[in-house]
Amino acid sequence: MNVFDRNINFDALFKFSHISASTQEHLKRVYASFTLCMFVAAAGAYIHVVTHLFQFTFLTGLGALGLIIWLTATPHSRETEQKRLGMLAGFAFLAGGWALGTLLRPPYSSPLLSLSIIPTAFLGTAAIFACFSLSALYARRRSFLYLGGFLLSGLTLMLLSSLVNTFVGSTWLF
C-alpha cells in the first residue's frame, strides 16, 4: 500500500460527536509514543551538548532520514509494532541530537545567555504537551477535545505568571 493512497475523511474534523472507546485507546497509544519521543529527543540533545557525539551532523541527518523512511515503508501490524516504535525512538534520538543539540549549543558557548534556557524550554514544552495530552485522553466529546488543550495551556500560563508575580511583585500581573 502506498502512503499517498490513504483515504482521509476530512469531514471528521467538523464532527462534534462523542469519541468512541477505540479512538480513545488509539489516542492513548499515540500520546504515549509522543511522550517517549520527547524524552528520547531530550536525551539526544543532552548527549550532543555534553559529549559532542553528534559532530558529524550530515551523517546524523542521513541516519534520521533513513530511519523515518524505513518507518514509513514498514507496514503496520501487531508483529512490527515494537520494531516501528524502536525506529521512531531512534529517529527522535538522532533528530534530537542533530537538530536540537545544534540549536542548544550556543547558550553554552555564550557568556551572555543563561544556562537555564535548556531546562526552561524543556519544561515549558513538557507542560504544554501535558495539557494537550490530558485534553485528548479525558475528553469524551470532540468539542472538548478541541478546546481542552488551549484552555489548559492558558491556565498553565496564568498559574506560572501568578507564581512569578508572587516573587517579583509586578504591577502588570495581578
UniProtKB/TrEMBL annotation:
It is found in: Membrane. InterPro entries: Bax_inhibitor_1-related (IPR006214). GO terms for biological process: cellular response to unfolded protein; negative regulation of apoptotic signaling pathway; negative regulation of RNA splicing. GO terms for cellular component: mitochondrial membrane. Signal peptide: none annotated. The chain crosses the membrane at residues 30-47, 53-73, 85-104, 116-137, 144-168. Pfam families: Bax1-I. It is a multi-pass membrane protein. Keywords: Membrane, Transmembrane, Transmembrane helix. GO terms for molecular function: enzyme binding. The keyword Transmembrane helix applies. Belongs to the BI1 family. This is BI1 inhibitor. It comes from Nycticryphes semicollaris.
